[in-house]
Amino acid sequence: MDADVVVVGAGPVGLLLAAELALAGVRPIVLERLDEPSHQPKARGIGPLAAEALRRRGLGPDLDREHADGLRKLEREHGTTRAHFAWIHKIDADAADPGRRGALIGQPALEALLRRRLDELGVKVLFGHAVTGLKNESAQVTLTVESAAGSREVVTGYAVGCDGGRSTVRKLGEFDFPGTPPSMTVRFARGHVEGALPAPGRLPKGTLQYGDGMVATYDFEDTFDRSAPLDADDMRASVRRVTGVDVEISDFAGGLRFTDQARQAATYRRGRTLLAGDAAHVHSPSGGQGLNLGLMDAMNLGWKLAAAVRGDDRLLDSYTAERHPVGAAVLRNTRAQSALLAPGPQVDALRDVFSDLMDLPEVNRYLSRLISGVTIRYDLPYATTHPMAGLACPPLIVDGVPLEELTTSGRPLLLHPEAKAIGDDRVDAVVAHDLGDDRLAAVLLRPDGVIAGAGLDDDLRSAIKAWF
Ligand SMILES: Cc1cc2nc3c(=O)[nH]c(=O)nc-3n(C[C@H](O)[C@H](O)[C@H](O)COP(=O)(O)OP(=O)(O)OC[C@H]3O[C@@H](n4cnc5c(N)ncnc54)[C@H](O)[C@@H]3O)c2cc1C
What spacing in Å lies between the alpha carbon of 11 and ligand 1's midpoint? Predict the structure, then answer.
């Protein structure tokens, strides 16, 4: 065996998964096809669940620094710091659950942060290493890896495809990937448009945005050729389709093109091969949920996979069971957003109605919870009496100490007035009298921050046995 686990892809999800594995005592190999880190802008922030997860690993101060800067940029570009649903910028992030905070951090900055963390944990990322073959066998996975040094086979106990929306691991691993085809293509390019254009906004055949050295289209009459690059001609043709106007694009400096195709792997595990992040689910970036979703896949999988490497794989199937419904819910709401972005007077009218509804506090709270996922609850495999069991734990102040200072080791944590009598060597047992939240007198936390049991009435010994 060359490695216990090979993580394929050093995007944010692969990097976080590798860090969680290392924290749990497994030394993974991370293989990345690119020769160096990507600087594509993509996501500009993470929701409260992922931000809380990173804070619990000591990354809070880094997130805070980036967040202040991100807020200024957001306000400048959108005139508001409110989140959006189908680009209707009215969602109050605090409405979901006051005190739950996301973090505005650009994807390249987040990846750099995670690479630094991996460095500290002693895990190397091998850039310039592309996985091109995979054999999923009963006792191991054999990968073919191409690099400047040539082609070689790498044998591993488990392989995890964190290799993005066009995942090679997903295809080679023969995962079904059902879903819906694109209804639109979004193009975002840097450059200056010159021509008699209509004002930016919704138009009869799509949406046009431009100014400040950028141009973007939401094009509903297009199925583009993925093998052809986004160039000035492709951008011009799309502007023509959306506006009917011929333009010139000067100083074209590249950009991004993506669709609202929504697909999800039918299972996230086939034997010893697993998927996480965009490799497991693709959808439109509307509402900015993909990164959050993928990072929480990594948090969910890390400690379970580490247990499997140590010889007990009984938790591994709970990864699909817990994460697949969460991904399906995100696909569903991004499809709803695509419907609200389609052109035409009927949708214009629907958007007006929807916008008015968003002014109602109940609706605003509903959407804020939908986008942030803070009310996601996992079914636990034992009886619990507490209404918060199965939820992600909110940030607590435990007898005056922030929870995030007690969770950096990534170990299961028991906070209870009689923790020493209940806990054993499988958990960090901390005697705690005041958790700073009236709803919680005691809590058993999984490494991914999920409340495995809570309150003084829950049978926490059974919960410890079930998970750890
Ligand atoms: C324009 C845009 C805006 C977005 N905005 C947001 C937002 O605001 N909020 C949000 O949450 N999400 C947003 N997203 C989505 C977010 O960017 C993705 O969900 C995120 O990048 C997924 O991370 P990942 O690690 O799963 O995959 P990726 O970031 O795609 O990383 C996959 C990595 O695997 C590597 N790889 C691929 N194939 C191989 C191979 N065969 N061998 C080795 N390595 C391989 C790739 O080079 C890449 O580095 C946005 C996306 C786009 C396009």
Answer: 6
Question: So what's the pLDDT on residue 458?
Answer: 82
What domains are there in the chain, each with its CATH number?
A: 3-177+262-352 (3.50.50.60), 185-259 (3.30.70.2450), 397-467 (3.40.30.120)
pLDDT of residue 1: 86
CA 309, 110, 258: angle at the middle one, nearest 5?
A: 95
Binding-site residues, ligand 1, Cβ < 6 A: 8-14, 31-34, 38, 42-45, 107, 130-131, 162-164, 168, 256, 258, 277-278, 285, 288-292, 294
- Cα–ligand 1 centroid distance for 10 (angstroms): 9
User: What pLDDT, in 10s, does the model give residues 42-69?
Assistant: 899 999 999 999 999 999 999 999 998 8
Residues of the chain with pLDDT under 70: 223-224
Q: Which residues pair with 430 in a beta bridge?
A: 415
371 Cα distance to chain centroid:
12
Question: Are the beta carbons of 280 and 325 closer than 8 angstroms?
Answer: no
Quote the ligand 1 centre to 215 CA distance (angstroms): 22
